[in-house]
Fold:
Amino acid sequence: MTCHLAIVGSGPAGYYTAEAAQKLWGDDIRVDVFDTLPVPYGLIRTGVAPDHQSIKGVSRRYETTALSENVRFVGNVTVGTDVSVGELQQLYDAVVFATGAPHDRPLGIPGEHLANVFGSAAFVGWYNGHPQFAGLDPDLSGASAAVIGMGNVALDVARILSKTEAEFASSDIVAHALDALGASHVHTVTIVGRRGPHQIMMTPKELGELMHLERASPRVDPADLPAAADDAMLEPGLRKSVGHLRSFAAIPESERADKAIEIDFDMFASPVRLIGEDRVTGVEVERTRVEAGRAIGTGETYVIPADIVVACIGYRSSPIPGVPFDERMGRFANDEGRILPGLYAVGWAKRGPTGTIGTNRPDGQGIVERIAEDIASGAIGGGAKEGRAGFDRLAAERGLDVVTFRDWKKIEDAENRAARDGAPREKFVDIESMIRARG
Ligand code: NAP
Structure:
């Protein structure tokens, strides 16, 4: 008996789930991997920083899965609009949401809607060529930028704002971002953290990169650092990250002199208001102290100048009509990935925006085990579903312009051919160009 599986989302969580399904069921599985975009790989393409090409290399593994007989890519199809969740449930034994967390968490403070204030989903999408954000057009003509948050996304954004054109040579940053960053006047990037060094979410490798930037130098106020002996109680990764902060604090002024850009860590600073008439000019913060891991306001406020603000404070998933959603957590309401019989969530759509790309692998395996248990218990399955043949009929009736994996390979070829010297590709940044490139 063949099991028909629909996976919604072709990023890491989607393809690791497809891979795990294939491993478990072999020839007895048919997997359709849906994506709104005509191009696969989700966050690998539009989230991972363009200068982190080694991380993007994992897409070769997903391609192996995508090219196998029983897995297919169904691009340019939006579940919830082109086809409803109910229709997928009628056609497939199980529907798995691997839709990630594409929306910015709001800061929830006054001034958030001023011009030149962006969430990281939008800003990262802009420099990575996500069609939804390619037209963002951030104004980089001011001297100062504030990056809110102390996680790896904040580090990505601060680094991208600081690199020279030469440092992007082997990256796949899109042309419009490379041009805008080349003309940028930003020379102070302030990373704003509401807690202290022991509470950062930044990982050591990523933090260490700040020491090796051509024209930028990180700065930490030594007064913000706890006693060195206190680092002993930290888990090793965090201890190493804090060690980097200590090195940043120890950089002599003479070494900073020849660096045009400063990446300044402003910790114990909780944003209370964004300031400006129409356009942002600063972030008002309240000084905090940390007690039992929590930021406590001290009542003292000050303003960090900022001609552009990027809030890197986490993401939320997109609700889909008819699918239970946990508003507080910003993800699908689920119990270990089970939403309802036959409906599952995996990756960020299941657990929220945490972990690395690799965390999605055991997540994918776990969800396939849940599905297998539900088939074994008779909760789902039974061999009555039509699977992809039924979807193809529905797509033809509706005139959906489905982009296949073979089409994607043509798009990819065109992107590879258009690459600048030394770069892996020049991405298409609008859907029409992607579709045109498949011939
Ligand atoms: P994150 O690691 O959860 O960091 C979010 C940061 O935002 C935290 O410092 C948090 O501070 C702060 N924050 C939240 N709400 C805030 C508010 N209202 N005001 C001020 N600060 C606020 O999230 P992320 O950086 O978006 O990363 C998401 C996931 O992707 C993480 O697992 C990350 O490691 C991963 N990622 C990995 C890489 C890589 O490996 N190279 C690159 C990018 C992303 P509190 O701690 O005080 O709440």
